[in-house]
Structure formats: structure tokens, C-alpha cells
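Q: I'm building a small set of examples for a reading group on sequence design. Run inverse folding on the following structure and report the sequence directly after it, with nothing in between.
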């Protein structure tokens, strides 16, 4: 049975902190998220996860790449220790799985065995095939779709083609792509992408390719699909340190570029729902949900919770076996210099499933999507 990885106790000292009311609001959001979990029979028979490192749960572990998180202090608050999740505990996909009622986390494609795949697979590991090449081997969305084909073949061999097709139509799918295409491509000196495209042009190129990939996923039987937008990347500790903020709360030009992508993603949801028979796509407003430091929480430009090396500009990941914050980890929104903490993931996953505000999802949330 899935349970919270760790319990946090607020010490009396915290009660005298001037930002107590802001932090209490965040903790209450977490409690709301935890209290609405569903146990028992899952609301859908299976859940398939596609995405980048924000949703990876171990697919990169055995690859020849620097982009892996299967070492401490990653996983310090996860029951199984370091698993490849780029955070201290659960990621957003884990939280969504809990809300859907699964009593086990969805296995990574790298580890899924036998009949486990009937309840879903996590393929997450950029949208563009070249993204992250400077880090080593990675699993692009095109590769993830190929892996899904392999999974479908195994399901068909177990259940037959007709039963497999019926199962796949009823499953839940989340796709969270785009963050790495900015952090490890458009904003990286290792690529000339930013010299080739304006932010508007780059967002258009990403959406055009994304559209074709999502249509392929639909052709493989997916019908209930949540597209998770990109968060405010200009507020991550890594980008703040690398680019500076000019007195602003975050790096505005990065957030402006991300918002271009997100606005086009909303339009893509409308287009796909109109053009694809029985398709039910929704958009999750990760940017607006507020899991990244905002003025309201007064944690803007807060350092990552783990040690990322002497120069944050050279690496965004935790140092292997490095130090991590001990007190009030629950109050940190970032674990390393670019990936959110379990706190942020609880808020994001909870509000993806059950929107707290109308702006959290479009046109409906996952809770209502799975009931269609």
C-alpha cells in the first residue's frame, strides 16, 4: 500500500518565522492532496507515463549518461531509497498514480516485468531527439513511443488484440515534455538552437513535432491523455544563478519563452479534441499551479536542497553522496538546481488530479477525465 514516504514535524521555532502563514498555506495544500487519495480499486485499469526527467523513475539508470539520479541524496525520503527519481521522494507521476487509486507505483519501462505492464508503464526519460546529447544517452519521446509499441505487443500476446485494444482505450496517459528541451537545448551553450529560432519559432517547432507524436500515441489506442505544461523554468535556482534576474523575481526571458509554448499547447488540446474521434485531451497548467517559488511563498531564488557543487553554473544535479538540507525539507520547492522537491510534486500532482482553481487544468481535471 502506498504511504507518505516521510512525516515532517513543524518545530516550535518555525511558529515564530515571519513567513509562517505562507508556509502553512503550502502545508495545507499538501494535506489536502494527501487526504484525497483513493485506495482500493484503481479508477482506470492502467496508467502510462511519458515525459522527461521530471517524471523519470529509473529509465536512465543503466544508460551511459550523466542525467541519472540513482544515488544519494536523491531518494532520501523515498521508501525505496534512490531509484532514479530526480527528487527527494515521489515525483508528480507517483502522486497522480496514488490519486488514481493504484496501490503500487507504476514501474519504469527498464524494470517492468510480466503482467506488471497490464497496470501501466513509465517511459519517462527530451521531445526533440537531439535534446540532452551533451549529457549522453537519453530516451526521447520518439524512443518512448517505440518502447510503448513493445509494451503493446506484449499486452496483445497476453490478452489478444481485441482485448488489448479495449484495455488501452480505458487507460490514463500523462505526457510531460518540454522542460528539458529548454534547459538542455534552447538555453544550453551546447546547442545553437537559440541562434536558429526565436522563442516564438522554437515553440512552434516543438508543438508541431509534439502534435505528430501525440497523434501517434492516439493511434496506439490512447484516448484519455493529460498534457502537463512546462513550469516557470526562469525561477529554478540553476537558471537564476546562470542568468541572473536583473532585480526581477525570476529570469523573465525564460518564463516568457515557456509561456509561448504553453499557450500553443492549450491550442493543440483544442485541435486534437476536434480532429481525433473520441479523443479526450486535457492541459495541466503546471506553470500557473505555483509549485515553483513565487512571491506568495517568498521562496524565490531559494537555493536547491541538495549540494550541487562549488559552481552551480556547471551542473544542475546533486553531487553524488553530497550534503542535503536537514531541517524543513518539506518547505523547499527545489531538490536540485532544476528539479522540484517532493513538496512541489505533491502540490502539482494533487492539483492535476483535482483542480484547486479553474485555471489549474483545461478544459477539465484528471479526476473528471477518468470518469468520461
Amino acid at each position: 500500500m502506498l504511504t507518505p514516504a516521510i512525516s515532517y514535524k513543524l518545530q516550535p521555532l518555525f511558529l515564530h518565522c515571519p513567513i509562517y502563514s505562507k508556509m502553512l498555506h503550502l502545508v495545507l495544500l499538501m494535506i489536502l492532496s494527501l487526504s484525497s487519495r483513493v485506495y482500493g480499486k484503481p479508477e482506470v485499469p492502467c496508467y502510462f507515463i511519458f515525459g522527461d526527467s521530471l517524471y523519470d523513475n529509473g529509465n536512465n539508470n543503466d544508460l551511459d549518461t550523466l542525467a541519472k539520479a540513482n544515488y544519494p541524496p536523491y531518494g532520501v525520503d523515498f521508501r525505496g531509497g534512490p531509484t532514479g527519481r530526480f527528487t527527494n521522494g515521489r515525483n508528480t507521476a507517483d502522486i497522480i498514480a496514488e490519486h488514481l487509486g493504484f496501490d503500487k507505483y507504476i514501474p519504469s519501462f527498464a524494470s517492468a516485468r510480466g503482467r506488471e505492464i497490464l497496470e501501466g508503464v513509465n517511459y519517462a526519460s527530451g521531445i526533440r531527439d537531439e535534446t540532452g546529447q551533451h549529457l549522453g544517452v537519453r530516451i526521447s519521446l520518439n524512443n518512448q513511443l517505440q518502447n510503448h509499441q513493445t509494451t503493446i505487443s506484449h499486452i496483445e500476446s497476453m490478452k489478444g488484440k481485441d482485448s488489448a485494444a479495449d484495455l488501452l482505450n480505458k487507460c490514463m496517459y500523462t505526457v510531460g515534455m518540454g522542460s528539458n528541451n529548454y534547459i538542455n537545448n534552447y538555453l544550453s551553450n551546447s546547442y545553437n538552437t537559440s541562434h536558429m529560432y526565436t522563442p516564438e519559432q522554437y515553440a512552434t517547432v516543438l508543438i508541431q513535432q509534439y502534435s505528430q507524436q501525440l497523434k501517434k500515441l492516439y493511434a496506439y489506442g490512447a484516448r484519455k491523455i493529460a498534457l502537463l505544461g512546462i513550469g516557470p523554468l526562469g525561477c529554478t535556482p540553476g537558471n537564476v544563478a546562470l542568468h541572473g534576474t536583473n532585480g526581477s523575481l525570476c529570469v523573465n526571458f525564460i518564463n516568457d519563452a515557456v509561456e509561448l509554448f504553453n499557450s500553443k499547447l492549450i491550442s493543440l488540446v483544442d485541435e486534437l479534441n476536434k480532429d481525433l474521434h473520441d479523443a479526450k485531451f486535457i492541459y495541466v497548467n503546471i506553470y500557473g499551479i505555483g509549485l515553483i517559488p513565487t512571491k506568495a511563498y517568498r521562496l524565490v531564488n531559494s537555493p536547491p536542497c541538495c549540494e550541487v557543487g562549488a559552481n552551480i553554473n556547471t551542473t544542475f544535479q546533486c553531487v553524488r553522496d553530497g550534503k542535503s538540507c536537514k531541517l524543513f525539507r518539506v518547505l523547499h520547492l527545489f531538490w536540485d538546481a532544476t528539479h522540484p522537491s517532493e513538496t512541489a510534486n505533491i502540490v502539482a500532482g494533487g492539483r492535476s488530479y483535482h483542480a484547486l482553481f479553474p485555471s489549474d487544468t483545461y478544459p477539465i481535471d484528471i479526476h473528471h477525465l477518468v470518469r468520461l
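The two ends are 27 Å apart (CA to CA).
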